[in-house]
Amino acid sequence: YIHIINKADMAASKGLKILVGCKRVIDYAVKVRVKPDRSGVVTEGVKHSMNPFDEIAVEEAVRMKEKKLAGEAVAISVGPPQSQETLRTALAMGIDRAIHVEIPLAQLEKLQPIHVSKLLAKVCESEKPDLVILGKQAIDDDCNQTGQMLAALLDWPQATFASKIEPSQDSKQLRVTREVDGGMETIDVSVPAVVTSDLRLNEPRYATLPNIMKAKKKPLAKMSPDQLGVDLQPRQEVISVEDPPVRKAGAKVESVEDLVGKLREKGLVK
Amino acid sequence: MLSSSRAALVAAAAKLPRLVTRYGYCTTAAGERQQQKPLSPKITTHPTRNDRAKDPRWKDIDMTRAADEADVVIVGGGPAGLSAACRLAQLNAEKGTEMRIVVLEKASSVGAHIMSGACLDPKGLVELFPDWQERGAPLHTPVTGDKFYMLTEKRAIPLPLLPGMPMHNHGNYIVRLGNVVAWLGEQAESLGVEVYPGVAAAEVLYTEDGSAVKGVATNDVGIAKDGSPKDSFERGMEFHCKQLIIAEGTHGHLAKHLINRYDLRAGREPQTYGIGFKELWELSEDRWRPGYVEHGVGWPLDSGTYGGYFIYHLNEGSPLAAVGFVVGLDYSNPYLSPFHEFQQFKHHPHVAAALTGGKRIGYGARALNEGGVQSLPKLTFPGGCLVGCTAGMINVPKVKGTHNAMKSGSLAAEAVHEAIGSGEIEPATYEEALRNSWVYKELHSVRNIRPSFHLLNGRLGMFGGMAYTGAVWYFTRGREPWTFSHGGTDHEKLLPAKDCKPKDYPKPDNVLSFDLLSSVALTSTNHDHDQPPHLTLYDDSVPGQVNLSVYDGPEQRFCPAGVYEYVELDDGSKRLQINAQNCIHCKTCDIKDPTQNINWVTPQGGEGPAYNGILIMTTELQKSPQVDMKGFLLRYETFKGRSGWKKRWAVLCDFCLYLYKEQTSKECFYALLLPNSRVTQSHDSSGQYRSSI
Which intervals of the chain are annotated as region Disordered (chain A) (predicted)? Predict the structure, then answer.
């Protein structure tokens, strides 16, 4: 069932209030190493940065503000104390204020999309955004679940893998172009809605020093999962994390006969 | 104004046989002058070599920069830069003055571009923060054992390490320097310094009349690979300051520019360098000897190539060891590949014994300065000064420079503070303060060791150097009245390929030795691919015409990251391809390019390697027991029928006296409970403590 808000035309209103999710992940260029006890990967001392899809989400929110489609953009991050740096980057890109839901170190490793989506849902109840933009997936777990779960918890429409967001013909809804397996799909969603960003949505701007300095003065609020009343009991248990198997050497063959001969040897061809 | 090396390059190029003139005109069969296609495809698109004012693509772009004011700007957040920042902040607190101090660091986080062994002499740290232990400085591994070896192809010959020799390391700490630098960054911030990682200082700004430095500008962002502006283009910002401290590390690019502009090397020798590699290994537990330090020379380097190795066993909970290798960049054979020499070295039976069963988890490389006092430039210029490795203060035989860097940073801070107070443009007292300090004394005493390698025209090589150190230096400690020269720049020492033998390096076995690209991947280096390569060439035609034809393209061998590649084109000719994304900011290319055609400039801030030196160990949080007193005691002991006074290390804690065989022993061998006792200071002039029971 479609949840329609009794709202004036988007163009006439103060503009949408956008909530953007950012996650602090290991930088995509870092060579990741599995911990000797195989319980996970080494994260201590390793370079971290904002999830690339979340950067795209932040950039989209800032562009919507610049186009006057949005009035206020708020960034939120669920993570350890260092997530504040990620939020400062978002603020430097043009976000107005930030919320940090701090997760104690002990529970950090067991945090899963189900918990994050519940925390975000609780924040949405108090913040009442018109649009939530999340990255489609995080590059550390590749789950691609948080946006979809959040929409279900809030009972809001969702437009995932967005490559374009614009107002619909009648300006009462959002027209989102999605990247799907068969090509591109364009749908109209009514607000409030959850949108997840895909790679081609935009190219994020750089957080330059003058903006970083200005961002220090923007408000950053802290919350805890207890305050929000969400239980962080893990629903999954990681049994082991292992390196991918070492690639075996291949063999080059000179002719088709050789190839068929080798396939026969391996019993793959009769 | 052409520098002398550029003039030499132009002269050299003029001597090359050419059918086509410099600007590409040639005479066709019909006798007409016709413009040819460019001699070589355009390689350098960077704005520092392509004036955007004349580029039509930049016509409508607003090039104004925001400007901000600070009292002192420090370029480089390493040991020298951060020590200068901390000292300045301390001076302000002491003297009640107020200053805005800004540190600009190109790495994405403080410490991420720090790549050093490192065996730290705590002198510099102790002077800056006498309470470093309470403040939690990450110095966890005191040196427990120290050895020096000479490697031949099959054997490892131990050489005596007498106290007083520069390689003797007792009292020092093995650290992960990135950790220490990150910690220094925290101290600086808590003292009120503004530290901005991810920001590269790209340009020096001058006063109207061009005589003095007035600040720096940070890098522009959003320029495409072909040099055109992207949608995300943004101009860098300017920092105007009263004093600029350059702390970029060895062969910094702004330092290079300032040294040329103010001719700071006049009357002094040029700097000479080495390239240092380091790998971090997780050893198998049975081969791990925490606190053990080993240095050595020899195989596989031939006696004419300066270099050596170190292995430092850390003691921070896991069996980690740092394996390092240095090759002097004054080598002459263009076929030499320092990276492959390093990989081969690990196969020596003595080294393989330590590493077998272990796993390589880190790799990095950086140029280091080897010139010592002979190569120190003038340290100050109107508007600022040079500190640390940027000036060149490594004690080469000791393979240590961090303590000197930190001390120079402190001294510079004092001079800068004074200069700002008195309104002087140049912090001139800095150079004199350095000359009167223990930094200069130390560098002066070892000044002849590195160049002794060149004794008898280098025929004795490493043997000559070691013989000099043992026979002369050990007795004179630098008091000998002569000073050896380095004999010219490193890049001039490279011989043409035709005069040298190609070298055949064994293939990596992926257990002890590895290939270049997988090593580069371990540095986690990255650069935005869509930006002009930051390895710029003064002349795009020189690589093909000189580097390749005369020297067989040595840059494809001395770069530890595979940035330079000569790729074959369809017509069979070779073209230089610059893989700027691989760069790990070591600066070796800028140093060793025989024609000095390569000019390294900074890429966008936040890019480059991401060395992991920052480790937050939970074992740090254990509180150390409250120690009331510690020191040496003489104890009358009987052993195997013989009695005598033996000096033992004693620790008084909680009314119990613990005795250890040595200061570094982990377990005590004797404990004496002393209830109802009090420690009082004795009144006799010998200054000894006495406790009364």
Answer: 228-247
